[in-house]
Amino acid sequence: MNEAFTPARKPPDSAALASDAAEAAELSRFEACFRDPDAAPAHPRAWVLGQRMPLIDALRGLFSGTQALVQFRLWCFLGLCAVPQGRLSRDELMQVFHEVHPEPLEAVLRRLRDLDLLQWDASELTYQLTPLAQQVQALLAPLNNAPTDDDEMGALLAQVAGAQQLGLVDAAHLQHLHAQLSRLHDDFADAIASGSETRLRLAQPRFERALQLVDKAGQALTALIRAEHDDPRLERAARSLGAAQARLLAMASQFTRALQQADRQRVTLGSTGLTTSDVRQWLQNHASLDTLMGEALSLPVRPVFVSQHDLVDVAEGEFERDRPDPQRSSGLPPAAEAGDGTLDVLQLPPELGGLIDLLGQWQRTPPPPLPDGSSAPEDAEAHPLHEAVLGGRFAHAAYRLQLLPLLGDGQARTLKGQTGDLARMPWQLQFSAQHLAVDDPDVQLISQGLLRPEPGATAPTES
Prior knowledge:
- The chain is mostly helical.
- It has 18 helices and 8 strands.
- Strand 4 (268-269) and strand 5 form a beta hairpin.
- Helix 10 (197-216) packs antiparallel against helix 12.
- The chain is flat.
């Protein structure tokens, strides 16, 4: 009866059938696969699978046989699950599957009844799906949807986000999503490490789609991670999921830098706007590269395989090799007056020099002594942080604030120039956790802090 609707297929190899039969005979018991058969049922996952044996047997019954037979069973089963009626008579069932022959349909209905997925009510002469069938349909629901780019992570994110809303989140759901996020992170990391523009361009849509999915499900994931769970396994899985999510989001800047690096390596050919990437893509999509030369060569081409490093070395050697010019005179060229030129020297921003001058001025003008003749206390020599930072636009103030941690830096003190001069200034920076409201047109709040002279520092003498 199966031959009426099963297409002809290549018969399986006899050696493969013998191997499958030997493996089935050897693995007749689940415990036989473990080194310690007595400890196998104690594993949490093994216990859960043991409680799901009816569901596993139903899936085995649906997926046993040839590819066409399994496809037909799934088509019938998913079609029954989509019927909006709780009970179906025989005539209604035949109307639902009017496209198929009655013999293969009868075989599938018999198989569904044997698997306890379809129940026949002899008193009312109707068919109805069993609770086990509803569980199987929940597992096979993604088969009803057309393949999309979201298949690799969309279903897992939807499952976790929906379970979080219903309060039915399990640690296994989070572990599966964590594993998928880790796999995506490794794939994207390999694409970045390769430096290949082709791999980066191919991975870019997947990466952007993954970030969109994580962003859409971010509210549910954040609520799940911050929630207090009684199950320690669930809490550990939630924390690990948060770390994996953060790693994937942090890769966005690396991916952007890798694409920018590939763009910088692209060479523009002439004034036409064509680039080396355009030429490579055109060559990759060309049907037959051997026809490009046409009849330009009368002799066949003899390919010579040379590594790119050898080609670069030979090209550099040719360009750098000295060649005598027979047309050039052996005498000295006539005298000529040199034209006026300009020498461009890299200059640091003026804010750096201004900060050095301000700290030097503070060092040269210590606070006056007290009326009794004693020296001023140590705090009197300290200056507020905002006095050294504020002034000018916000960008100038931010730049000066970033320069202040160089004070006292041991490595920076060895540098020459203004950066080293600032690091060698005898001042110490002390930040505070509080913020100070300042009267400045560009800065509203600034961190509180003090600039103190280093112990034992003396004021410089005027030269």
